[in-house]
TrEMBL record:
Protein name in the entry: Uncharacterized protein
Keyword terms of this UniProt record: Hydrolase
SMART domains listed in its UniProt record: GAF, PP2C_SIG
Domain GAF: 232-366
Record-annotated PPM-type phosphatase domain positions: 384-603
Any single Pfam family the record assigns to this protein: GAF
InterPro entries the record matches: Bact_Sigma-Reg (IPR052016), GAF (IPR003018), GAF-like_dom_sf (IPR029016), HATPase_C_sf (IPR036890), PPM-type-like_dom_sf (IPR036457), PPM-type_phosphatase-like_dom (IPR001932)
Domain of life: Bacteria
Chain positions covered by the region annotation Disordered: 12-32
Segment forming the signal sequence: none
GO MF annotation, one: phosphatase activity
Length: 607
C-alpha cells in the first residue's frame, strides 16, 4: 500500500491458492465479506489493473482523495503510418478492378463461353501489361486439354509465363497463362480474373448440364411411351436400336438369351445402313474377347466396356430380377461415352428389358388363349356322302381373351348328327370354361340318346349348379338325319337367333321358335321345330356377332344375312358360310366387337 498527497495505491498479490467454494443454487448472502470480486474496485477506484513481477501476479487499484481530479492520460503517439489516399485515385482503381471482372449483361448474353473468356482475358492482359495469354481447359472426357481462349501472342515455348490454376469442380480442370510472367505483385489481379473465369466456366457447365438433363428426360419419356405401346416381341427388339442410334452411338445391337442360356443377336442397326452387314459379321463372329465380355455382362449384370474393333459398352437387359439379354452400343465417332450417356443407356436398357418381358408375357398369354380357343372348337367337321358341314369363326379379340361363341357337330350314331352353335355371356377364361361345360354336356347327353328338349333342360340345370353365377348361354341345337333324299332336322332355340333356311329354289326364310336361354331360370321354354332339307337346300346357324355388326348407326341385321346368301342358293355350305363371313366383315371398317360364328349344312345329294 503506497500513499501520497493525492491518494493511495493498493496492490494485492497472490500468496497461495485458497479453497474453492462449493457451487450452490442458493443466492449469495448480501452481507457476506467475500465474493464481490472486482465489482467494488471498479465502482470506487479511479484506476486499476494487474501487475506481474518476479514474486508473482498482483491486482492494484488507486483511490483518490476527495475533490482531487486525476490528470488526463497523455495522448497516444502516432505509431501507425498515415495510410490516407487520394479519393479520386481510389475510385479510379475500384472502377478498373470492376472493369476487369464485370461484363455487362447485354454483352454476356450474346457471347459464347470461349468469346466471354477471351473478353476477360483481353481485359486482364491490358491491365497487367501482358503481351499475350491463354486459357486451357480439360473437360475430363479423355480427350485431354484444349485451348479455350487466347489473346495477343502465344509463344511456342511458354517457359516465361505466369500460370494461375482455375478452381473448377471435377472432372473439369484448367489454368490461365500470361506471357511474359511479369511482376509478382500482378499475380493478385491474375488470380482474381482466374476466379471470375472459373465461375463463368462453372455457370456455363451447369447451364449445359441442365439443358442436357431436360433433353434426356424428354428423350426417356418419349422412349418409354414408344416401348410401352409395343406388345410384340419382334417389334420391341427392332425398336430398341432405333432409339439408340444415332443419338447415343454409331451402332447398336441387341442380344437375347434363349431357353438354354445362350446369347444370340436378335436386332441391330448402324448410323450408316450400308455398314450394318459388316458390323453384324463382327458382332456375331468368333471374336473370343467380345464373347467373353458379353458373357460377363449377362452373368454378372454389369455394364462393361468393349474394345476395338467394336468399341463401345455392353449393358445388361434386366427385368423382374432376371437377365433377358445384353444391349451393346458403339461409341459416337467424335467422342467417348460420357458418364451421363452411360446413365441414360442403362436407363433405356431397363425400360427396354421391361417392355421386352411384357411383350413375351403377352405373347405367351396369347398362345395360351389361342390354344384354349382352338380346344373349344372342333378340329374338323364330320363329312358324309350327301351332307356337307362348313363353319367360319372370327374372334373379336386377337389378344389374350377367349371368346364365348362356339359351334360343334357330333355324329351321335351312324348317319345321325348333333349340330349346335351358341354364345356364352362374357369373355375370357370364365366364359371359356362355361363354353366347355355347354359343349361337353351336350355331347354327353346326346350320346345317351335323350331327346333335344330333355337335353336342354338338363343343360340348364347343370349351368344353374355352377359356382359362377350369372353365366348363361344362348343356344341353337338340332338333330339331323337322312330320310331318302331329304335331310330331316329337329331344331330348338334357346334365346338364340333363328336359323336361315336357304332352299335351292325359292325365297330364304328364318325358321325356329324362340325359347329361354340356358342358365338363367329354373324352368326353360323349349319348342321343337321340324323341317326337311331337299337336295340342294342349306341351313345356316350364326351368332349375334353377325346380325349386330354395325356401320355407324346401321346394323347388319337379318336382312343383311338374307341378302348376302340368297345369290348362293344351291351352292356348297363352305361357299355360303365364307360369303356370309366376308360380307359381314366388309360391312364396317372397324374391328368386330363381338365374336362371329357361322355354321352351315347343305344337302348335297343329287336328285
Amino acid at each position: 500500500m503506497v500513499a501520497d498527497d493525492d491518494g493511495v495505491t493498493v496492490t494485492v498479490t497472490d500468496f497461495r491458492g485458497g479453497t474453492l467454494e462449493a457451487p450452490s443454487s442458493e443466492p449469495p448472502d448480501e452481507m457476506a465479506e467475500h465474493g464481490r470480486g472486482l465489482l467494488l474496485v471498479d465502482r470506487f477506484a479511479s484506476a486499476w489493473g494487474t501487475t506481474h513481477d518476479a514474486t508473482g501476479k498482483g491486482v492494484w487499484f488507486r483511490l483518490e482523495r476527495r475533490g482531487h481530479v486525476p490528470p488526463p492520460l497523455p495522448e497516444a503517439t502516432a505509431l501507425v503510418p498515415d495510410t490516407s489516399v487520394d479519393p479520386d485515385l481510389a475510385v479510379a482503381a475500384a472502377e478498373r478492378v470492376a472493369w476487369l471482372v464485370s461484363v455487362p449483361d447485354e454483352l454476356r448474353t450474346r457471347l459464347t463461353l470461349p468469346q466471354l473468356i477471351a473478353e476477360l482475358l483481353q481485359r486482364l492482359c491490358e491491365i497487367v501489361g501482358a503481351t499475350g495469354g491463354a486459357v486451357w481447359l480439360d473437360e475430363g472426357d479423355g480427350a485431354g486439354e484444349s485451348r479455350l481462349a487466347s489473346c495477343g501472342r502465344v509463344p511456342l515455348v511458354r517457359d516465361d509465363a505466369m500460370v494461375v490454376p482455375l478452381h473448377l469442380a471435377r472432372p473439369l480442370s484448367g489454368r490461365l497463362e500470361l506471357y511474359p510472367a511479369g511482376a509478382s505483385a500482378l499475380r493478385t489481379l491474375a488470380v482474381l480474373s482466374a476466379d471470375r473465369m472459373a465461375l463463368t466456366i462453372e455457370a456455363d457447365r451447369l447451364r449445359a448440364a441442365d439443358v442436357r438433363r431436360r433433353s434426356w428426360l424428354t428423350f426417356l419419356a418419349e422412349a418409354s411411351e414408344l416401348l410401352a405401346q409395343s406388345l410384340n416381341v419382334d417389334l420391341t427388339l427392332a425398336l430398341v436400336p432405333q432409339l439408340m442410334v444415332p443419338r447415343l452411338g454409331d451402332w447398336c445391337a441387341v442380344y437375347v438369351l434363349d431357353e438354354w442360356g445362350k446369347l444370340g443377336l436378335a436386332a441391330g442397326t448402324h448410323r450408316d445402313e450400308s455398314q450394318w452387314p459388316v458390323m453384324k459379321r463382327l458382332l456375331s463372329g468368333p471374336d473370343a474377347e467380345l464373347a467373353e465380355r458379353l458373357k460377363e455382362t449377362a452373368e454378372l449384370g454389369l455394364t462393361v466396356a468393349l474394345s476395338r474393333p467394336v468399341e463401345g459398352i455392353a449393358v445388361p437387359l434386366a427385368a423382374r430380377g432376371k437377365i433377358l439379354g445384353v444391349l451393346t452400343l458403339g461409341r459416337p465417332a467424335d467422342r467417348l461415352h460420357a458418364p451421363d450417356d452411360v446413365t441414360v443407356v442403362e436407363d433405356i436398357a431397363r425400360r427396354a428389358a421391361l417392355a421386352l418381358d411384357n411383350a413375351r408375357i403377352h405373347a405367351e398369354r396369347q398362345r395360351v388363349a389361342q390354344a384354349f380357343q382352338q380346344a373349344l372348337l372342333p378340329a374338323a367337321l364330320p363329312q358324309a356322302p350327301g351332307i356337307e358341314f362348313a363353319a367360319e369363326y372370327v374372334p373379336a379379340s386377337t389378344g389374350t381373351d377367349v371368346g364365348g361363341d362356339f359351334y360343334d357337330v357330333l355324329e351321335v350314331e351312324p348317319g345321325r348328327y348333333l349340330v349346335s352353335a351358341g354364345d356364352v355371356c362374357g369373355k375370357g377364361a370364365q366364359a371359356a370354361a362355361v363354353t366347355g361345360v355347354v359343349r361337353d354336356v351336350l355331347r354327353a347327353l346326346a350320346r345317351d340318346g335323350l331327346p333335344l328338349p330333355r337335353i336342354i333342360e338338363l343343360l340348364n340345370r347343370t349351368l344353374l349348379e355352377q359356382p359362377d353365377e350369372g353365366r348363361y348361354a344362348t343356344l341353337i341345337t338340332a338333330m339331323v338325319w337322312r330320310e331318302g333324299p331329304d335331310l330331316c332336322v329337329e331344331m330348338c332355340l334357346s334365346g338364340h337367333e333363328r336359323a336361315l333356311h336357304l332352299p335351292r329354289v325359292g325365297e330364304c326364310e328364318f325358321v325356329g321358335v324362340e325359347g329361354t336361354a340356358v342358365g338363367l331360370l329354373e324352368q326353360v321354354k323349349v319348342t321343337v321345330t321340324s323341317l326337311r332339307l331337299a337336295p340342294g337346300d342349306s341351313l345356316l346357324f350364326y351368332t349375334d356377332g353377325v346380325t349386330e355388326r354395325r356401320n355407324g348407326d346401321v346394323m347388319f341385321g337379318l336382312r343383311g344375312v338374307c341378302r348376302a346368301v340368297t345369290p348362293l342358293a344351291g351352292h356348297p355350305a363352305s361357299v355360303v358360310a365364307a360369303r356370309l363371313r366376308t360380307t359381314v366383315l366388309n360391312f364396317s371398317d372397324e374391328q368386330p366387337k363381338d365374336d362371329i360364328a357361322i355354321l352351315g349344312m347343305h344337302n348335297s345329294i343329287e336328285d
